[in-house]
Amino acid sequence: MPESSITKCENCGCEISVNESYFHNGITLCDDCYLENIHRVMACNPLVIYSAKRFQDADGLKPEDRLNEQQKTIYNYIKSRDKVTVRELINKFNITLLELENQLAILRHLELTKKRMENNKIYIIPF
Hints:
Helix content is 44%, strand content 19%. It has helices at 31-38, 46-59, 69-81, 86-93, 97-109; strands spanning 6-8, 15-17, 22-24, 27-29, 113-118, 121-126.
């Protein structure tokens, strides 16, 4: 493959062929980064929160029991600190902002965490 047909994902830095790249919001992305950008999980979604409550009523599982390992780790860290910033979580777990936003949205849907403004700073706190 000629060098000119190889490019880099501007989000994660992986090498990809030009034919397999996506141009979204002014940057070149690989498949994974493109999908991550166009299928964001929305934190404020009353229908999802309602559904989560109905599932809990139906099967009796606690919200914490529905979390994957990464979500449990993030949630337990937030609980242990009482309040954390997004920057703290990104640094602690070495994840992207988008990844963290997706995980926090799920925690919010299960009413495990929420945001609170304090002294012009936004914190993630237990619900």
